[in-house]
Amino acid sequence: MTILSRPRFIPLAALLLFGAAVAGADAPATVSATCAACHGADGNSRDPAYPKLAGMDQEYLLRQLKAFASGKRKDETMSPVVESLDPSEFAALVAHFSRQKPEPGRQRKPDLAAAGKKVYEDGNSDSGVPACAGCHQPDGRGNARFPRLAGQHPDYLLKQLMAYKSGRRATDPLMITVGQRLAPEEMRAVVEYIAGLGSE
Amino acid sequence: MKPRILPWLGAGLLALSAASATFSLPAFAQPAADEMRQALQLGGRVAAGEEAFAVCQGCHRVGALGREDGSYPRLAGQHASVLIKQITDIRAGRRQNLKMHPFAAENVLGVQDIADIAAYLQQLPVPPDQGRGSGQAAALAQGRSTYLQDCARCHGSGGEGDAARFMPRLAGQHYRYLLREMRMIRDGERRNANPEMVELIRNRSDDELAAVADAISRFGAAGN
């Protein structure tokens, strides 16, 4: 991989000089060759089945890539893709997506979103669902430990919640508990609320 | 610089702090209390505790202020020793708490995390805005008198608790949570309460408990 043996300080300097305008210029070739088709070159996926990665913390993204690589996290689309990647490139890939600017979230279903806001901010004390805001922050921006959720595709979020509920995704034991405790209608509502987070 | 000395120095300090630990375990906490003893002897780090507390605040709220409806207790200002005992009791199943149980599991919280979280919570401010009871005068007077007669000896005249004896601080706690736990202790549902307390509370009516909880909920933030 010649792109990796290239000194890093040149693209970094370019980025510092020209800011976000050239964010794509120093991206690893793998981004356009492999990642962009689903996640978008700038990490703002247009396909509701695939997650937006723009602005996610790079430590979190790296943990997920490694989980896919080790088989701890499985997905019929993503697992074979990760298998084809060179692990030494992971750090550059996650750094690229992490520094992309997330597009503002979009609220599609205001009624559901209003119910979802309550779940997001208060949880459900009867069933023991914690407020999402506790870990993922009130504005959904997340951090290294808990992923950014703001503006994420509802379909993708719902799929992940269901995967946690069934135990198929087990990257975080707490989310398995949360998935099991959330009622189906709470899941559908909260993902709509999250989709609208991060709008200016 | 002789870097090899450092680990030995650390081990020595640890042994020293273990030897000088001021906590003696209450008889009712035996025998499965090794983890609790370990957490008590580890130095809790406030900054690390604040970070680890992130997974708790979805329920206990930012600042660990709990919820007025009693669904989740206020933890701010609670004695670290009490918090360590309760968390390790819940995790080991000595205290029954199904909602909290998965969040206190070994793969979520390490023993050091427990010590850190306890240190963080203990130093948090307790604003005097906890949920209170109805304040009905006659009941409140009765509640105060019962408290002084039966509760103050362990929990302190102002509800300040006693860290060395694992007696929870009650001042600043939400009324509905106090009442919920008193009922659970009376009805044998909490399971890890001090047997002396279970005995004292055994024949009290709901009204009597409500009066005492109301009295406690009026203790000021400083424990007075």
Write the topology of this structure:
The complex is a heterodimer of chains A (200) and B (224).
Chain A: H1 2-5, H2 9-18, H3 29-39, H4 58-70, H5 78-83, H6 90-98, H7 110-122, H8 132-136, H9 154-166, H10 173-181, H11 184-195
Chain B: H1 5-19, H2 34-41, H3 46-52, H4 57-60, H5 80-92, H6 111-122, H7 137-155, H8 175-186, H9 195-201, H10 206-217
Helix pairs in contact in B: 2-5, 2-6, 3-6, 5-6, 7-10, 8-10
How far from one another are the termini of chain B?
52 Å
Tell me the number of strands of chain B. 0
Low-confidence blocks of residues of chain B: 1-22
Q: What is the total tally of β strands of chain A?
A: 0
Protein described:
- The complex is a heterodimer of chains A (200) and B (224).
- By secondary structure, chain A is mainly α.
- In chain A, 52% of the residues lie in helices and 0% in strands.
- Chain A has 11 helices and no strands.
- Chain A has helices at 2-5, 9-18, 29-39, 58-70, 78-83, 90-98, 110-122, 132-136, 154-166, 173-181, 184-195.
- The N and C termini of chain A lie far apart (40 Å).
- With 224 residues, chain B is mostly helical.
- Helix content of chain B is 49%, strand content 0%.
- Chain B has 10 helices and no strands.
- Chain B has helices at residues 5-19, 34-41, 46-52, 57-60, 80-92, 111-122, 137-155, 175-186, 195-201, 206-217.
- In chain B, helix 2 packs across helix 6, helix 5 (80-92) packs antiparallel against helix 6 (111-122) and helix 8 runs antiparallel to helix 10 (206-217).
- The longest helix of chain B is centred in the middle third of the chain and has 19 residues, at 137-155.
- At the A-B interface, helix 8 and helix 10 of A face helix 4 of B.
